[in-house]
Amino acid sequence: MVGQTQTPLSDETAAPIVQIPVVLAEKTIQIVVESNISLDTPAIEIKRILKNVFLTQCKLVPLAFTPIPDTNYRLVTRAKLFLQRYIRKNIEYTNDQCNGVIYNHISNVPK
Q: Is 111's pLDDT higher than 90?
């Protein structure tokens, strides 16, 4: 850069410390959800239902450990996963009148 001076962000010469998120495990979870949703107008035909799952909170609670030899650390061998989430359903439907209108209803289903 011509005519410009770069100012360092820090006077320290130590290596920077960086926190990077790391995936520890990937699991497939299957949960059966049943709900009754009231529509604004009576439906004669459901055209489409779109569902999205939103995680609002999760917590992993360790239950069993195995000591790692020659260290003060322990390896978690069993844990319980608690999830707080909701499902957003977008329902597109028609009523009994033949006017070609497709109605839309969005509902959040807690579990």
A: no
